[in-house]
Design goal:
This protein is of the alpha/beta class. The chain has a single domain, classed as Rossmann fold, CATH 3.40.50.300. Helix content is about 25%, strand content about 20%. It contains five helices and nine strands. The strands form two sheets. It has a seven-stranded mixed sheet, sandwiched between helices. A two-stranded antiparallel sheet has the order 1-2. α5 (about 135-145) links the parallel β6 and β7. α4 packs parallel to α5 (about 135-145). The termini are far apart. About 30% of the residues are buried.
Length: about 190
């Protein structure tokens, strides 16, 4: 019985030779954040952001105007936003999905995140259940990271929730000379 000849061991290559063989290695950068015009603020995609203050909605409208390609889910148990007011601020209503959820708020919010259709989602923070809130917020955080949806929580007071990556205060009296609101960053976990 005759055996095939032995295959010689491959020659050891240097790093430069490996790179040449494989080709230039391309570093995959993380998904970029949402750049804010007129500020040095970048909002991370796929994170939970708490917005405080009397100018929070107006500031969100500036964000939506700056990113005209974005789609927004506005999820509340009882809708407090008047849709024609959005249109009056120069934002097309075709970009919005307004969800008035009554008792099924958590289910609707998770569904909006899982759909992978929205760049932004907005909801009030006051209805997050106090019992097991960390578990629920962790579910939201995982879904937001998977889909790249930035989830905004509208709040009156700071919350102790651990998963919030940015906490931003925008008061209506903080408008600069250009008429845009200046956000004050209270917390920045990453990004």
């Amino acid at each position: 019985m005759q055996y095939p000849p032995e295959t010689p061991l491959p020659k050891r290559l240097t790093i430069a030779e490996l790179r040449e063989k494989v080709g230039a290695s391309v570093r995959i950068d993380p998904q970029p954040g949402w750049e804010m015009p007129k500020t040095n603020l970048t909002l991370p995609r796929g994170s939970l952001v708490e917005i405080l203050g009397s100018g929070s909605r107006e500031w969100l409208f500036e964000v939506f105007r700056a990113h005209a390609e974005s789609r927004i889910a506005w999820v509340e148990p009882k809708l407090t936003l008047f849709p024609p007011a959005v249109s009056q601020r120069g934002i097309s209503l075709s970009r919005f999905l307004f969800l008035e959820t009554e008792r099924e708020w958590s289910w609707a919010l998770l569904g909006a995140l899982r759909s992978k259709l929205f760049h932004f989602a907005v909801t009030p923070v006051g209805i997050v259940p106090t019992r097991n809130s960390d578990v629920f917020l962790r579910k939201l955080q995982i879904q937001a990271e998977r889909t790249g949806t930035t989830l905004f929580f509208l709040s009156d007071v700071e919350t102790p929730f651990f998963g919030i990556t940015h906490r931003i205060r925008v008061d209506s009296g903080t408008a600069d000379g250009s008429g845009s609101l200046r956000p004050e960053i209270l917390k920045r976990k990453r990004g």
